Please model this.
Amino acid sequence: MKNILLRFLNILTVPVLLITLSCSTNQNKNSEFGLVIHGGAGNIIKGSLTPEQEKEYETKLQEALETGYKILIAGGSSIDAVEKVINILEDSPLFNAGKGAVFTANGINELDASIMDGRTLNAGAAARLTHVKNPISLVRKIMDISEHVMLVGEGAEIFAEQNEIKLVDSSYFFTEKRWNDLQKIQIEKKAINKDQANFNSYNPDYKFGTVGCTALDKNGNLAAGTSTGGMTNKKFGRVGDSPIIGAGTYANNNSCAVSATGHGEFFIRGTIAHDISALIEYKGMSLNDAADEVINKKLSSMGGTGGIIAIDKKGNIAMPFNTAGMFRAFVLDDGKFVVKIYKE
Amino acid sequence: MKNILLRFLNILTVPVLLITLSCSTNQNKNSEFGLVIHGGAGNIIKGSLTPEQEKEYETKLQEALETGYKILIAGGSSIDAVEKVINILEDSPLFNAGKGAVFTANGINELDASIMDGRTLNAGAAARLTHVKNPISLVRKIMDISEHVMLVGEGAEIFAEQNEIKLVDSSYFFTEKRWNDLQKIQIEKKAINKDQANFNSYNPDYKFGTVGCTALDKNGNLAAGTSTGGMTNKKFGRVGDSPIIGAGTYANNNSCAVSATGHGEFFIRGTIAHDISALIEYKGMSLNDAADEVINKKLSSMGGTGGIIAIDKKGNIAMPFNTAGMFRAFVLDDGKFVVKIYKE
Model:
């Protein structure tokens, strides 16, 4: 009887093992090219979105993926894919970037973005934009034709105007949802008499929505980009990690491409994006282990919340986050589109 | 005869070796505490400064060192030493920070700074300040009492005003020398019809003067800070590496504290300060080897110019630069003050 049971178990072992391998290598097999995107991490628990809202997010993430996939499968560059994918997300009111940017304490929208080319280590970044429709296209232009990396405020918009980057009236960024978020958070703040003195005073229920994309193209070049409206009710010209090369965005053909989303202050202090790259390049870690180490250990132990998406030079991907959910999606050279929202 | 010569050489060997060891360990012996400062790297060749100018720089660097040394030997914190030392350099018109800040293309002064505490990884940063007398004291305040890391522009100055950081009229930053530098560079630019399209178009004769300080205190805590007026004739709200945590400034008790000076765009693209830290922490390099690798190999191969100062948790220091000179100085627990300008 025991022997029969053992033989039965042996027969079972092969397919079970295959299934297990298939699951664990799903996000870690080598791929000739690939694309990973995020639309923000936060307290997105099951039930907090209606089925209709879920569908809206999934459809837009899928559309963004398809745009990038078409570029990459046709032999286009990772940097082009990153820009065009983020354009889709910026133009949607669903995400806290471009059209859907949150409001500052003064009731305006201030947008930040950055982009990096892993082949050349060239980079572009901009912060405190109030009229640039697609910040990721501005930072691409800064990277491509300027001698500078980072431009801030009105100066950045003068550069944009001189270089045919689309400017819009600030009313373009008004959305009722984000306006209501501002009113709500300002009432909450008054109620708890919250001051500026403590990192931990940060409201963990705040929903982020920064967008980002990392890509590997058929020529083995990596690129990363991030675009955001920052933090609802931000004051004092606050700038987060999204426009900071090494914090919110980093790409290096020697290691990986990373885009972050979350409580930006912690991502700056941890130089999160470059730290993942350094663990791979200098410590020989896999992308998965490096991303896990930085997000689930280092960031969490600092009290920071958020996540990253990343792809390495072999087409391995990682999407760790320490919040309840993160809008995320990826496609590799098998052409299989995967879109996810909640923790699994 | 040959034997006598050999015996003579043998006798010589011992003191020669001792002298050599003494030289090479001068900057690399362990020290209970220590302080390293810079006042900018650039094309500072012997003969470009008069003996009187040399003396002026040396005296001011010595004064700054003494200020920090007094704090550290009395058991004060590295973060206090960094702030107070940089205050001295900011208040001097000799350096491109605070009082001696360079002019933008629009003829104003825009100051940037950042500070980081290696014990907590807390950090503060600010950019595009036009009225803050001591930017390093503002970023210290941002780090200490704000929930944010980086504040930019007028918002940062409103925060400064609300928190008793000294504001001055913008005329405070006028110095004839810097004004003349602006006129000169604008004429040169016109002459060569320089556009914005090429990193290499950057004038290698440009003299930087960013200031920075890194310190180790008796409790084993590291700190770093950097303050600058940026680049003469900068346009479009350009921000360099000085206010970028991980690029111009980084401190981590697990590795080292770094402050950078040079052509900021390359320091951002290379995430220079964090890269040195990562080579120590993840690759087990010595501070000297890591700093040399990043400045003399990586930065140089990108075409970037400048240097860094650094101190590690054991009191080893490094001051590499790939320009003709760098205003630099250090003191360790032996109380010996060393001030240098030119390459040796």
